[in-house]
Amino acid sequence: MTEPARKWIGAAVPRMEDAALLTGNARFIDDLEPVAGIRHAAILRASHPHARIRRIDLEKARAHPGVIGVVAAAEVTALIGPIPSAVRAAMAYYPIAVDKVRYVGEPVAVVVAIDRYVAEDALELIEVDYEPLSAVVDPEAAAGADAALLHEAHKSNLAQSRTFHYGDPDGAFAAADAVFKAHCRYPRYSSTPMETYGLVAHFERAPDRYTVWSNFQGPFILHALMCGSLKIQGNRLRLITAPHSGGSFGIKQALYPYIVLMAAVSRLVGAPVKWIEDRLEHLMGSSAAADRAGSVEGAFTRDGILTGLRFHNLVNVGAYVRAPEPASVYRMHASSNGCYKVRNIFIQNDLVVTNKCPVGLNRGYGGPQFYFALERLMEIAARGLGLDIVEIRRRNMLEKSQFPYISPGGSHYDSGDYLAGLDETLRLADYEALKRRRDEARAAGRLYGIGIAAGIEPSGSNMAYVTLAQTVEERAKAGAKSGALGVATISIDPSGAVTVRTASTPAGQGHQTVAAQVVADALGLRPQDITVVSEIDTLTSAWSLASGNYANRFASIVITAISQAAERVADKLKAIAADELEVAPEDVELADGTARVVGVPEKAMPVRRVATSTHWNPAGLPQGIAPGIYESVVMSPEMLGSPDEEDRVASSVTYGYVCDLVAIDIDPATGRVTVDKYVSVHDVGNELNPLIVAGQVHGGFAHGIGGAMLEELVYDADGNFQSGTFADYLCPTAPELPKLTVGRVRTPSPTNPLGSKGMGDGSSMLTPAALANAVADAVGSDEVELPLTLNRVWDIAHGRRHERAGAPRARIGAGPQAAAKPGGLVGEGTVELAAPPAQVWALLLDPKTLASIVPGCERLDLVGPDRFVAAVTIGVAAIKGSYQAEIAIADKREPASMRMIGKAAGALGHGAGEGRVRLEPTATGGTRLSYSYSANVGGKVAAVGQRMLGTVARVLIAQFFKGLERRIEPEATAEKRSMWRRLFGGGDA
Amino acid sequence: MIRVKPDERVRVSLVVNGRWLFGHAEPRMLLSDFLRHELKLFGTHVGCEHGVCGACTVEIDGRATRSCLRYAVQCDGATIRTVEGLAVGDTLTPLQAAFNRHHALQCGFCTAGILMSTTAFLAENPKPTEAEVRDMLSGHICRCTGYEQIVSAIMDVAHGGG
């Protein structure tokens, strides 16, 4: 058989998807009205990180005009069961809070109304009586004995712990010349696609069935879990994806609990329901990459040969082990040697639950955390051994002759030339020149550093790797799992037009264009002649568990299915043409829209005519050729077996390679990191479309830069969420991205006919580690944590310990007043008052005075000895709300000092804090009042108003003392006022 | 300017992409929601609803403006251009064509806003430097591209060459 000429594969074909997107013609989920009678849902979400729900009152919301229905856990759980998990732990997960809320943003109730505005109005009418519980957000603290317990039935926040041995790690460490250790903390961030989650759920009766249109990205293995929770068989949950999805990066995997929730809600309220997540909901309640703590140790010879690794991964999965977690820590597991030769590896994976949102897929899935550990270790070891950071890699990288290579964990590395990639990186970076620049910069007193990170980019995930979370016995009991099915269908209709269906649910990766290129070459057509349908309809598409868009699976698996289907169609066309042209099928080639005899181009017929004959004249087809053209391929790469008894598994199909080198300069005055040079060399096998490859590299790099420099989903130590807007959660914009020099090496993958490898994740995995290495080199410290914000880098550069929000730590200061947990508000100040301490003291404890001077106070009552309750209205920027406050006075030493303990709660948020007030007489008979306060604020006001809270607190305090001054000096103040009026004729100054 | 009570729905008339259109809005309805759900112009996308991401940018009376930071009733009588108003028939504007050529969009969700800002920007500054282009783009968040090809596309349109 002749190899089809490759005219389109590998060409920089501009995308076919673009015209609709550029003209406003493309339709995303919120643009669809797929069924008549749609109502609109809004979700009431937990404002507390951890609280028992004593009571929910839905009646006022139900009575609100325009409301169709309101449901909470009681109604929903009457219909659905918990969502199954791969981890056996008594931590039932429902898509709505049952009895307790365990993270800020957890759904508590759903309102369905005639429009979203009315639905949100009604949310404010739902009354939830919470009993707040103490919370834990730090993974190390969560594992501690005295940590707040999230799931009482499980009796521990440690959801699971598993250990793994590959080779002889203990022997390697015993024989090592040197052992180095990197402590690794990795922050929580998310790729935050520009389009948030969205769906339309529609329940129909007899047979009872749910149809849900959404921007879910798969994996469709989750379809089975959704059906399990909804207690229905697969054909009663029809999932249809929107024709366009506004970015995903893994994040839209975690839409699935909302599919279950809104399917149930549609049934309960009796109407099709549309829910479009808003940005605050997305940032606090969708999903994220798991934050991690832990360490990695490396055993080295004195020559720098890495002989053993010990990983301790402490994974913060958030409040529930939401499937497919704990897959994030197993994605890289079978490749824990990275791109190195080391064969003795110990791994301990501990999963802890905390009062943060559950985690899930995010670009690089497990890779950024893994490489941050391994590649930090390599540079720490290089420095410890006195080796160049390049040399230590050169001595340990796998060599070209070793491929194909089976890693200690069972990965089948398909192809690679890692040293060539390293050399290309050095060439593009001009490494020797960069080192000279570093010397010069340092001689001039500047902070300049160089870092490297290199690794493999696994693509096309074996669905079975997540079962490594189970023991060998558990796996045996559950039944073997393996594989990653790729599915593609190619048909030619009676007009001769070709349609490809991929079930690959892209979100901007250009699958339609690349699929058309591949099929065009196979059938001798042009890409623009081919229509590609990439969305899924689970009732009408060919699909399977692995369908969807994740783990770089398109160019590693889906493309194989498309190629094989195209080949079948080509074979059929050739057989028919050969009969007509009176030659053997192997003498026919498909090119330039014709089926023609090889070497005799004038002996040809249009491909279209060959194809249409299968519909219009089946009787005229050669013997053995079936009518019509409709070829579906369902395949699974053969090496993707089940995990074996030694916990080894071939977890991916292709293994790309990325080598990054970065040189940076730090401004010690500001902590600003400026990238002087950034080189990233990639091996993606054969490139199917260089335009798209370049787009993926630059896009992945931007995610890496964001994770390294800017992005963090911040919680305070009480679990209050603090980054609920794009002004708080900082994504990189165009000026923040440094110039990237991209290089290539090419080792075609033997696993598919095109030689391509999956790609797209690589830079997002390696960039954070490379930048951390460069900063560590610049400041000469290994205490480097991400993100490398100005504050943090400044602290590191000045040898100060950076205070991490949400970290456990001892209380600040000596007094009990300084109880603010990290990430909270603190402040202090002094005012001079004209009255003596005794008078000030009396005023401060007088309810009438307080009522008149507390800003926004509507009512204030003494309810017991030294106990007040108040109703106040406070605005934080545009967020104005009413709060009920309780204040208690303690440690009174009249008239010298007192402590005030307060808490407040309202629909928009809540807070708790303490203040200490000290009164001292002044020489002029007045009082010097000094105060200090600390408070933690939660709820919406904390999530979206974080930037303003400190300022607002200072303004309110200033107003309070201004009021106090007026009470003390009514005469003087009145005089000043009247003078002001006389002079300017206006109101109050 | 029209006067409206808080829960009153009023008629809002405006010129959109050269046509007089009207719809009804309560005072609190955002222009972005009005364009999408009242006028059914779904090309304008909503990414954050707090004025940071820039996805919802449209031209109001010739100025690039975030439609999530305007109320529909404020725009009664205004002249608005949305992404649907750029191409003429099947002919893309040079900017749109350059976005296609340079692969300056992936998911395309932020693209409408970027096209609207850039169109207004190039009208005022037809020969910008790369730094000026990046500064203009800093009002937009794109999570797919890393901006590199967007900058190339804009520089290509501004400085010719293909």
Topology overview:
The complex is a heterodimer of chains A (989) and B (162).
Chain A: H1 18-22, E1 39-45, E2 51-57, H2 59-63, E3 67-72, H3 73-77, E4 100-101, E5 107-113, H4 116-123, E6 127-132, H5 139-142, E7 158-166, H6 169-175, E8 178-183, E9 198-204, E10 209-214, H7 221-230, E11 237-241, H8 256-269, E12 273-276, H9 279-285, E13 291-300, E14 306-318, H10 327-330, E15 345-353, H11 367-385, H12 389-396, E16 405-406, E17 412-413, H13 418-429, H14 431-443, E18 447-461, H15 472-478, E19 486-492, E20 498-501, H16 511-523, E21 530-533, H17 554-581, E22 588-591, E23 594-597, E24 600-606, H18 607-616, E25 629-635, E26 652-667, E27 672-683, H19 690-710, E28 741-744, H20 762-779, H21 790-797, E29 825-833, H22 837-844, H23 847-853, E30 857-864, E31 867-876, E32 879-893, E33 897-906, E34 909-921, E35 927-938, H24 940-968, H25 970-984
Parallel strand pairs in A: 1-12, 10-11, 14-15, 20-21, 27-28
Antiparallel strand pairs in A: 1-5, 2-4, 2-6, 3-5, 7-15, 8-13, 9-10, 9-12, 13-14, 16-17, 18-26, 19-20, 19-25, 22-23, 23-24, 26-27, 29-35, 30-31, 31-32, 32-33, 33-34, 34-35
Chain B: E1 10-16, E2 19-25, H1 31-38, E3 57-60, E4 63-66, E5 79-81, H2 94-102, H3 111-124, H4 130-137, H5 148-159
Parallel strand pairs in B: 1-5
Antiparallel strand pairs in B: 1-2, 3-4, 3-5
Helix pairs in contact in B: 2-5
